[in-house]
Amino acid sequence: MKRNQSTEDYLECILLLSRENAFVHRVDVARRVGVSQPAVQKAVKILTGQGFVECDGLHIYLTSKGAEYAEKIYDRHCTIRRFLKLLGVNSEDADSDACEMEHVLSEATFGAMKAYVEKNG
Is residue 33 within 8 Å of residue 9, measured between CB atoms? Predict the structure, then answer.
């Protein structure tokens, strides 16, 4: 599957919001991602078409396919953040940089980072 940063950011956001609240609303996604509600509506339509989310009119739910992909992206984020922190990067920068890097690293580079984190951290 070709990687898409916007798709990945929305899925990760929905995953994290679903861990915090029983229901995920468009307004919460808009606030977290920093976009308008119409932008979220458009993204949700695309994500629904890709089979990543379902909506009941009020709430957004990850499908099993969406949850699996979101968990993979979030694991990448957490692993990269831990890797950067092991190198001495402060927490704020490590989190911000991980958010960007999670979308562009090759599987080989990510695998090496993950192995390093598991061995050293």
Answer: yes
**Residue 21 one-letter amino acid:** N
Rounded Cα distance between 117 and 86, Å, is: 8
Which CATH topology does 5-69 take? Arc Repressor Mutant, subunit A (1.10.10)
Q: Are 65 and 51 spatial neighbours (Cβ–Cβ below 8 Å)?
A: yes
pTM (two decimals) = 0.89
- What is the C-alpha radius of gyration for the chain, rounded to an integer number of angstroms? 15
Q: What angle do CA 77, 47, 6 make, to 5 degrees?
A: 45
Cα–Cα nearest to 59, from 16, 22, 6: 22
Q: Would you list the domain boundaries of the chain?
A: 5-69, 72-116
CATH code, residues 72-116: 1.10.60.10
DSSP conformation letters of 69-104: HHHHHHHHHHHHHHHHHHTT--HHHHHHHHHHHTTT
- pLDDT tens-digit readout, 81-94: 999 999 999 999 99
